[in-house]
Amino acid sequence: MTAAVTTVSQTAAGSPGPTRRRKPRSLLRGLLGNRKAMFGLVLLVLFVLLALLAPVISPADPSQISDAISLPPSAAHWFGTTSSGQDVLALTLWGSRSSLLVGFGVGIAATLIGIVIGMLSAYFGKIVDDLLSLFTNIFLLIPGLPLLVVLAAYLPPGQGTVAIVLIVTGWAGSARVLRAQALSIRGKDFVAAAVVTGEGALRVMFREILPNMASVVMTTFLGCVIFGIGAQAGLEFLGLGDTSTVSWGTNLYWASNNGSLMTGNWWVFLPSGLCIALVAFGLAMVNYAVDEITNPRLRTRRKG
Amino acid sequence: MSAPATASTTETPEPVLSVRGLTKDFRVGGLFSRNSVRALNAVDLDLPRGRILALVGESGSGKSTLARCLVRLEQPSSGSILANGRDLLRTERRGASRAYRGEVQMVFQDPFGSLNPAHRVDYLLTRALRVHRRARGAEQIQTRLRELMAAVDLSEELLDAYPHELSGGQRQRVAIARTLAVEPRVILADEPTSMLDVSVRVGVLNLMRRLRAERGISMLYITHDLASARYVADTIVVMYAGELVEGGDALTVLAEPAHPYTRLLLSAAPDPNRVGEFDPVERARLRAEVLTPTSCPYEGDPEQQCSSTEPVRHQVGGPSDAEPHWVRCHLYAPTISAPTALITDLAEPKTNETP
Amino acid sequence: MSNLNTLLDIKNLCVTYRGGARELRAVDGVSFSIAEGEVLGLAGESGCGKSTVANAIMRLLKPPTEITADALHFEQRDLLALEGRKLRSFRWREIAMVFQSAMNSLNPVLTVGEQLADVFTTHERMGRREARDRSADLLRLVDIDPGRLKAYPHQLSGGMRQRVVIAMAVALRPKLLIMDEPTTALDVVVQQEIMAQIKGLQRQFGFSVLFISHDMSLMVELSDRIGVMYAGRLVEMAPARTIFTRPLHPYTNALMNAFPPLSGPRVELTALDDETRAAWSSHIPDLTEATPGHWVAPTPEGSHA
After folding, report:
1. ipTM of the modeled complex
2. Which of A248, A233, A278, A245 has its CA nearest to residue A92?
3. Best residue in B249, B261, B345, B351 for a mutation probing chain C (most C CBs within 10 Å)
4. B27-59 pLDDT per residue, tens
5. Strand B325-328 with B243-249, pairing
6. What average pLDDT score do residues C35-51 get?
7. Which of residues 221-280 of C touch B (CB under 8 A)?
């Protein structure tokens, strides 16, 4: 057995720690070593690449109508065609651009707003906290879907609208989570020590508290992206998005509208739906991995 | 406290920091509750310049609250904090000014919680230097960092370390180094050794003594441990239930405690040198004296009349003592329901008292 | 004291924790014995292995943790060989333990009386009424009014809860009582009263005590002999008074120094600096008898006065 036996003397009371060792960015290093994370990351990178390269690798212009109507997958059209003769592969590839852009955009924006509001709430406390919490709670209480529908109906159609609508309905959840985390860190001695040292409010919030929230911010962000992609698809499926753009959601909308669901032309709606599911899956995998890394109790036992 | 300073060889210099009538109430219960707990009750205290003052009391006595008020982490409910003759609670109402922060620093109790785990040691120390402009330019900063680590007996190599790589004693030294970086006039140490392993405590206490001797920094050492207070401090004040009950030169007060509470604390402090066993009857008597006093040995004091309603202070010992030893009138009983071990942890009264 | 029978005999106890690919030798060749009616103090700081020794004696460590010893005998019976029913009946009846912060581990939804009675109904198959009577007796034993049987743990103060825990431990009159930091979480005023309680019970019933703590001053007041542990090994073992007046090992000295005197002149106490510690801590040899009854692990530069 070649396991290294550490005697307690190396870790006993008062002994100096290991000399000068730079701490690696442990979260990143941990992610790279974690199987779930790698799987999820590879999946996500794949989709991002496909989205970026869509103009190059797409076999056709997705909006081009042809008379090759409702053809099942074949050598000419790998994913078949829609009832308007559009190439499904092209639609799927081009659709990824919008879906991922809006999804990540919503994720970033909702997380940023959540950080700012959560942090201000936690740091200033009392009245500021009461007001911001009230504000957050109102947005949490408002039923999401009806609000989505109402806003989408009144605002001019377009990708931007969809994004705004999703951000407006999505920020409150992350704000609440981030506020809770910021509060728990706010109460720690090192924050008080920074205040006593003379650090200003902004510095304390963003250089003392925020770095300790990294993993929660990460998981919140991933959750918001999943929300962004899924909700966008949902909105568009209902026809409330911008039906003229190509995205996975609108692909599903047209598929449903044109009766592909009825006629069993599975190749029309399956790719887009599957893509949404796969991206969400990849994000969830990375999310689990981040949880695992930051909470040692969740780590699965490694063999050997 | 009105004994006029007669011309003596040792003039007590003006205190570096003082509080008068400091009171702090904490609201308990829900958002709209009216109930409150009084943590500090009209405390008067002077921090002598260039000395170490020990503030001794049990947990829950209010001593940490006093420190947090002094360092402006808590806002007192009433009273004043005096520095350089001015009341800070009036001149800096909202919060401490940067200048004040540069004068008064604090070492926290928990070495594992007072250093930000996301930052390395050199970052923590550099920030302290930068905020108060104690060093400018990379080279000056590097020199100062080395000096600071040497001042607290830590190897320079540890500058690159993260807090979780250090032991408890080392972390506490880093915390002390951080306060030194600011070059303060006062350091408040809130139970700096109670969470450290026993064998490293003396090292930290010795460091505090050395800093006082070499740099003339005034210190407030807060603890529940009388033995370490005696070791480190020049003067001592005893706090009970949010009020001060006795104060004076450390050796004198602990050799001749005047207040029953001080006597109680002293009898409870572990002392292998002590002769005789624990006497429950004596303990019960001391308790009663603290909780329900019936008489005061200083009755007839020409300077201060005994009072059960006013917390007057009597002078113990003579006026020629270098450090005045005062005690609060014994007749004054605690007005607030103090949640200290004394009251809640009484052994059940025996049905038949064993003589 | 030396002519009494040996109750607990431990020779070369080793405990190794295993986790994944790593191993940690928490206890490394510890040997000592406890005589009938003797109070042995085991001193040391966090991480030295003293709690592990206690857990090993009580057989509370499960695989993959590995316990080996040349001898781990209680009244000539091999503790390591006990299993199942025999082990359960031996625990609490022969050896009982008061854990660290036990007062915080009382079941919050059961009354004190129910928990005390549990000890009797579980180990002695007693009827409920008799168990209740015995519980009342137990409370009286630790100076708590039997009316408190109906109280819940949160209604009692910290000191009282600790006394309840001690009462539970002595309920079946064990021959050996192990106490792991019994007063650490308590206020200093209460600590003394708990120590007095333990002393009184020990005198009354004559059981042996293995008292584990980092607080040397408490230990000196209570113990007959004291053993000092560091990094899983014993560094010194001597009668309590001897350890107090003439500690030989630099680590024992450091532990004693942590409690400055409350009387007499103020003397500067030397701290144990990292260099000195490093000099002897990397390899701690076996104890040798420096003077009769006083065992020390030799240090590189000779004994430290």
Report:
1. 0.84
2. A248
3. B345
4. 876 666 777 888 888 899 999 999 999 999 887
5. antiparallel
6. 90
7. 221, 244, 251, 254-255, 257-264, 266, 268-273
